[in-house]
Structures are given as structure tokens and as C-alpha cells.
């Protein structure tokens, strides 16, 4: 590894070691359902082709959960792996945060259901909704609880069963999404490596670009709302695309600036896995080398809040990063929302 110019890396951790507190990522875990839906499978249900999907998005297949497998189940499986790797027992967990747009129910929270499934009865539990940016929002919230001395162990989960809200007759959207979950255990481990910074942003002026119009207080479920297919995800793909590139670039730049880091110091960039063309455009503008960027969307499609969480687990489990390496996560989603985080693994 090349020596680090002092002005680019003045021990970025120091700023986040606050009076002996450090937000460390003790371990990560992920889970994807067994069922694989290939582009060829989709050719049979909507007017599309493997060639269109692959060339316009980079996606080759995605996973879909079983009829009796829900977001809380996916999140639980990811969480149990992370807990085992971290050596954390259910009773040690102080807080569970689940980021999702596909909760089991509108209420209670999916986090409460996960709490029951893993037996973490001491833990407080709530969901956050920041769409595809949810995992970074949840990491940042978890970090605040740890640095403020409120909690010592926080379980953060990004989990989605998007197959439940995808309109399987709409070729514009149904080819894009998949189901899955990723989890991280955040702990106060003074002196250990950890989350160096996370930045978040939002622009509600563009809420209409990507939304599910039905099922909330504006369009509660009625026969009419269901007939109008309001309970499915809708997206203006082109506009979302443009906004994604700009926002991800801005978020990544801000996260690096806060840590006084040059992009060349980052071992692996993990972008939200929505579209390979978005990833390439962001990577080019950031000046990353192709081998710095991690991509797994050909296998899973866009899994929204689970996307970078699953990718982070894959990066760690395949040995692509070693303890001490720097990772940049960068996300974008409905809201609009965006964010980026730098992790010293
Ligand atoms: O996770 C949150 C963030 N999400 C994103 O960032 C997604 C952002 N958007 C995208 O990734 C891309 O805009 C899409 C992949 C959704 C669409 O790609 P595009 O290059 O922007 O295509 P388009 O929407 O402009 O559509 C081009 C053509 C249209 O046909 P006409 O109107 O030109 O005749 C579409 O009807 O491609 C057609 N098309 C399809 N054709 C075959 C759209 N979907 C399909 C399909 N198969 N599945």
C-alpha cells in the first residue's frame, strides 16, 4: 500500500473517537432467498428481453422470497449471522433499527418482529424509511446512539421483500428489483476500527419520481385504489437515473471531504446496486479505478435498503477488504434521499 500523504489522512478516526467512544462495526451478515428469477423467466411474463435488461441495467437475475417468507424473516436471518460472527448474544442488544420500505405490516414495526424472532428482549426497536438510502441512514442513527453513550450494542438491518410491491405486469419496474437483507452489529469498542462518517440528504420536491401511492393515509386501501394498482411501486426511471448520479457523486464527495480522504485511499467503493450505468457514471466522475468498485447487482438486482448491506457482507466474507482498509458506501433512493459513509474496516 502506498504511503498516505499526511494532509489526506490525518488519522480520520481521531475525530470520531469521542471521549473514548468509537462506533465499531463488529460484524456483518446477509441473507437472500433461495428462489432465483432470471431474465429469461421474466421474458415469459412481460414483453422484455434478457438483452434489454442486461444492457440497460446490468441485472441478470434476482431473488424472490417465498409466499410465507417476509421482510422480518429475511432481516432475522441476516441478523443472526452478524450476531454469531460478532459473538453477540440476543440479550446484549440495546437497539434494533430496521430500514425498509416493505415492512411486514404498516405497523407494528418490522424491528419489533425481528426483536421477537431473535429473542432480544432488552432491545428497543423501530423502523426507519429512507427507501434505498435506508441502510446508511440507519448506520448514522445507530452511531449517534453509541457515541452519545445511550447504547453500547446496536443491530442495524436493511431488509426488503420488494417482490410484494412490484407490479409484475409493468416491464418498466418489475425487472429491476429483488428481495434480501443485510445486517451490521455496531458496538462501542474504544480504539477499534469503525464508522468514520456518514452523511445523509433528502429532497422532498422530487417525491413523485419514485413512490408507492396507495396504502397510506392519502390513498388508503379501497376497492378503487386496488383496481387503480396504487399499491405497487412506480418510478420515472429516466429522471430518477439523472438525480441518482448527481446525488451519489455529491454524497460521496462530502463523505470523503469530512474524512480528509482522497478517493485513491478507498479500498472498495460500494455503491447502491440499482443500475450498472449509474454505478459506472458515478465511478467515472469520482475518479475510481474499475477494480475499486464492488458490483453484485447482476445476481440480486436492486434490493433497496438491503442493497449496500448485502454488498458489504459479500465484500467482507470474500476477503476483498482486510481490517484497517477503508470502504466508501454511497446510496440513493426514493424521497429523494441519498447518503454516503466511510468505514475503516
Ligand atoms: O433504487 C432507487 C434508484 N433507482 C434507480 O436509480 C433507477 C434509475 N433508472 C434506471 O435505472 C433506468 O432509467 C431504467 C433501467 C429504469 C430504464 O432505462 P432507460 O434507459 O432510462 O430506459 P427508458 O425508461 O427511457 O425506456 C426506453 C425504452 C422505452 O421504450 P420506448 O418508449 O422508447 O419505445 C421503454 O418502454 O425501453 C422500454 N422499456 C423496456 N423494454 C424492454 C422499459 N423497460 C423495458 C423492459 N424491456 N423491461
The radius of gyration is 19 Å
How would you spell out the order of helices and strands? EEHHEHEHEHEHEEEHEHEHHHEE
Mean pLDDT: 94
Q: How large a portion of the residues is in β-strands, by DSSP E?
A: 15-25%
Helical coverage, percent range: 25-40%
- Using the alpha-carbon principal axes, give the shape: globular
N- and C-termini, Cα separation: 16 Å
* Number of DSSP helical runs: 11
Q: Give the full name of the CATH homologous superfamily of the largest domain.
A: Thiolase/Chalcone synthase
How would you write the strand order of the largest sheet? 1-7-6-4-5
Q: What is the strand tally?
A: 13
Query: From the coordinates shown, what is the CATH architecture of the largest domain?
Result: 3-Layer(aba) Sandwich
Q: What does it look like?
A:
The chain has 345 residues and is α/β, with parallel strands linked by helices. The chain has 2 domains: 6-191, Thiolase/Chalcone synthase (Peroxisomal Thiolase, Chain A, domain 1); 196-344, Peroxisomal Thiolase, Chain A, domain 1 (3-Layer(aba) Sandwich). It has 11 helices and 13 strands. The protein has helices at residues 39-43, 50-57, 71-86, 110-118, 134-147, 171-174, 223-227, 237-258, 276-286, 297-300, 307-317, and strands spanning 23-31, 35-38, 61-64, 95-99, 124-128, 153-160, 180-188, 195-202, 210-211, 234-235, 268-271, 326-333, 337-344. The longest helix is centred in the last third of the chain and has 22 residues, at 237-258. The chain is globular, with a radius of gyration of 19 Å. The structure holds oxa(dethia)-CoA. Oxa(dethia)-CoA binds next to helix 2, helix 6, helix 8 and strand 12. Residues 48, 52-53, 56-57, 132, 171-172, 175, 237-238, 240-241, 244, 274-275, 278, 302, 332-333 line the site of oxa(dethia)-CoA (UT7).
Amino acid at each position: 500500500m502506498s504511503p498516505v500523504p499526511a494532509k489526506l489522512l490525518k488519522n480520520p478516526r481521531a475525530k470520531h473517537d469521542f471521549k473514548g467512544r468509537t462506533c465499531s462495526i463488529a460484524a456483518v451478515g446477509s441473507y437472500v432467498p433461495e428462489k432465483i428469477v432470471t431474465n429469461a423467466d421474466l421474458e415469459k411474463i412481460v414483453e422484455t428481453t434478457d438483452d434489454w435488461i442486461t444492457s440497460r441495467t446490468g441485472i441478470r437475475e434476482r431473488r424472490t422470497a417465498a409466499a410465507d417468507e417476509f421482510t422480518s424473516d429475511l432481516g432475522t436471518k441476516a441478523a443472526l449471522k452478524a450476531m454469531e460472527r460478532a459473538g453477540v448474544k440476543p440479550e446484549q442488544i440495546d437497539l434494533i433499527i430496521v430500514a425498509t420500505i416493505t415492512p411486514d405490516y404498516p405497523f407494528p414495526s418490522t424491528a419489533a418482529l425481528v426483536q421477537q424472532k431473535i429473542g432480544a428482549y432488552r432491545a428497543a426497536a423501530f423502523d426507519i424509511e429512507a427507501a434505498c438510502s435506508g441502510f446508511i441512514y440507519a448506520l448514522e442513527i445507530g452511531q449517534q446512539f453509541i457515541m452519545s453513550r445511550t447504547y453500547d450494542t446496536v443491530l442495524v438491518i436493511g431488509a426488503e421483500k420488494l417482490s410484494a410491491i412490484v407490479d409484475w405486469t409493468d416491464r418498466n419496474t418489475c425487472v429491476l428489483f429483488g428481495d434480501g437483507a443485510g445486517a451490521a452489529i455496531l458496538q462501542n469498542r474504544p480504539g477499534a476500527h469503525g464508522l468514520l462518517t456518514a452523511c445523509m440528504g433528502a429532497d422532498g420536491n422530487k417525491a413523485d419520481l419514485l413512490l408507492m401511492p396507495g396504502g397510506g393515509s392519502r390513498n388508503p386501501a379501497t376497492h378503487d385504489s386496488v383496481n387503480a394498482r396504487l399499491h405497487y411501486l412506480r418510478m420515472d426511471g429516466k429522471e430518477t437515473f439523472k438525480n441518482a448520479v448527481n446525488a451519489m457523486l455529491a454524497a460521496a464527495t462530502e463523505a470523503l471531504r469530512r474524512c480528509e480522504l482522497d478517493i485513491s485511499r478507498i479500498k472498495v467503493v460500494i455503491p447502491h446496486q440499482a443500475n450498472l450505468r449509474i454505478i459506472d457514471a458515478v465511478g467515472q466522475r469520482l475518479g475510481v479505478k474499475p477494480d475499486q468498485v464492488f458490483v453484485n447487482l447482476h445476481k440480486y438486482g436492486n434490493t433497496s435498503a438491503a442493497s449496500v448491506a448485502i454488498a458489504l457482507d459479500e465484500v467482507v466474507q470474500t476477503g476483498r477488504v482486510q481490517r484497517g482498509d477503508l470502504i466508501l458506501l454511497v446510496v440513493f433512493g426514493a424521497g429523494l434521499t441519498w447518503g454516503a459513509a466511510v468505514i475503516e474496516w
